[in-house]
Each structure stands twice: as C-alpha cells, then as structure tokens.
Amino acid sequence: MPVPRMYKTQAIVLSRFELGEADRVLTLLTPHDGKLKAIAKGVRRPNSRIGGSVEPFAELHLVLVHGRTFDVITQASVGEAWLRLRDRLESAATAWYLGELAERAVEERAAAYPIYALLRRAYQLLDDGMAPGRVARWFEYGLADALGMRPEVDRCVECDRILEETEAFRWVPALGGVLCGRHTGPPAEQVGVSLAALKLLKAYRRLDIEAIAALRLPTTVELEVEDALRRFIRYVLEREARSLAFLDEVRATSR
Ligand SMILES: [Zn+2]
Q1: Fold classification of 6-81 (topology level)
Q2: Distances (CA, A) of 113 to 26, 85, 116, 119, 154
Q3: Distance from the CA of 174 to the center of ligand 1, in angstroms?
Q4: 161 Cα–ligand 1 center, Å
Q5: What local confidence, expressed as pLDDT, does residue 185 receive?
Q6: Distance, CA 158 to ligand 1 centroid (Å)?
C-alpha cells in the first residue's frame, strides 16, 4: 500500500530553529509517530495562517504532508494551550527542560506514546500550578521508567539485599540506583544519600504525583533528591541537558 501523503496528528513542539527568511523547522513529539522534524512555511510572516499556533508548551492538532527532508505542516490549531504555565518563569524554564529531556530520550520516528503522555501530563501539572521541582522529579523518574531504566531504591543494586534504615547508602547511577554500605563500591560516580532522601526517592516510585505534591519536605531533602535524579538522568541520556543552566539561573534569582 502506498504511504498516504497527508496525515493528522497531535503534537507538542520540543524545539525549533529558523530557516530562510520566513520558515521555521520544528522538532515535534507525537503520540504515535514519535519524534519528527517538520517545516512550517512562511510562519514568521505576520499574515501567516498557522504562525500563532505552532508554539511550544501547547498540544497542537496538525495536518502534515510527507516531504523529502521534512514533513510540511499545512494546518495547525491549538488543542491545549497551557497558558498559565508560561506566566511563571520557573514553570516555563522547567517546561523547556522537560521538553529537552523528551527530545533526547526519543528516537526519530520511533513510537513513544508513554513519553508523549508523560510530557503532556507534566505540562498540565505545571499549568495547574504544581511546584515545578516536584513535576520535574516526577517526570525524570517516569522518563527513566519509560526507557526501562527505573532507579532501584528498595534493594542494593550490588547484593540485592533489602535496604535497612540503619545503614549508609550511596547513589550510583551507573549501577542503577542505591548501593548498600557493605561494598567499597566501584570507581563510578557516586554520592551519599540520606535516609530522608531515600524515602522521598521511594515516594516518587510508589505514589502518584498528587500525593507527592501534598508532601511537606525540608528543602535540603528536596535538593538532595534533585541532585540524585539529575545525575541519574544525565547518566541515562549520556549528557547534561543544556536548558538546566537557564533553569538554575531562574531559580537562583527567584529565591
Ligand atoms: Zn549491597
């Protein structure tokens, strides 16, 4: 059967760059076609029909035509705008960060429905006003899980023993989670992790995001878990996200 020239999809814009005088090339995350690059022609002209629609932090309804290099967007409308997400700089910076993680995690044209659903939900939660740090940790955990690399927080990654509250733990991303105090450990990257932080890591594994959002936690514990999960994601995706520097700058100036 010939491939139909035209198709419809929902999509979230992950990133974009400008091409020529008036065009823009978008990297899109879609529920069923994974990540793909598409061109929005003439989109930077003031009278463009689709110009205002193809923005990040929105779920779009698109009609595309298969093209040689890029597919071409012929129609676009906004499904979910998540406008409140954009009003707060930390939420917007977090949304960029999560979009970048999704972009790095998904291959072009590889089905990625769980990651699409995860990103969509994260943007909805940011739009609802949930603390951006909690949404980011929940997303990082979910992303690792979707990639088949869920962090181990109940058993020692080396000896498989259930972790006991009285021992010392270390967080070793290269081994997949928590190492108990019995091992001298490999030369891989590792940091100590407190019992309180371990409990929060377990909460991210067990509880839904609404329950996590309701937890009252000392800032030190949140920062410890932030550091641990960022290290983990950096290991899983094999590099640091570029947008983290901006996100951290935003947070530093808003404190
Ligand atoms: Zn062990």
Answers
A1: OB fold (Dihydrolipoamide Acetyltransferase, E2P) (2.40.50)
A2: 19, 22, 5, 10, 28
A3: 15
A4: 6
A5: 59
A6: 5
Distance 162 CA to ligand 1 centre (A): 8
- Continuous H helices in the chain: 83-87, 89-105, 113-127, 132-146, 195-206, 209-213, 219-237, 244-254
- CATH 3.40.50.261 for domain 84-254, yes or no, is no
CA of 184 to the centre of ligand 1 (A): 10
Residue 24 Cα to ligand 1 middle (Å): 52
In degrees, to the nearest 5, what angle opens at C-alpha 234 toward C-alphas 169 and 92?
Answer: 115
Specify the pTM. Answer: 0.92
Give the DSSP H or E segment for 3: none
Distance between Cα 199 and ligand 1 center (Å): 18
- Answer whether residue 187 shows pLDDT above 70: no
For residue 42, count CB atoms less than 10 angstroms from its CB and return exposed for 0-12, middle for 13-18, buried for 19 or more: middle
Give per-residue pLDDT as tens, 33-62: 999 999 999 998 988 888 778 888 999 999
C-alpha of residue 163 to centroid of ligand 1, in Å: 8
Distance of CA 168 from the midpoint of ligand 1 (Å): 10
The residue ranges of every structural domain in the chain are 6-81, 84-254
